[in-house]
Amino acid sequence: MEENAQKWTDTEVAEIKETILTALESVIDPELGIDIVNLGLIYEVEFEQTGNTVIKMTLTTMGCPLADILTDNIQSALAEIPEVTNVEVKLVWYPAWTTDKMSRYARIALGIR
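RE: above sequence
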């Protein structure tokens, strides 16, 4: 098989990305007790044919001391997905995170209207 040949169809890649997002829901922000997906911290999931996966995420504040813990927990959560061969977590600060990015579930859980 050529190196550039596709292993997965676009539909399968979309399904793998959904599996990745579901796994990321198991990563809980220790301060807020809500998962990073519902908090709106995950900005993008890139999944390449090689299995290389890039998670673009932000934090609630720039100096958040939890970056390493969350990164380690993301690595652990995605290690369970056989299609994912490598994980890179990229912290991005734009657009800035606001409570508007939170899901309805997260807002209710934290008492934010």
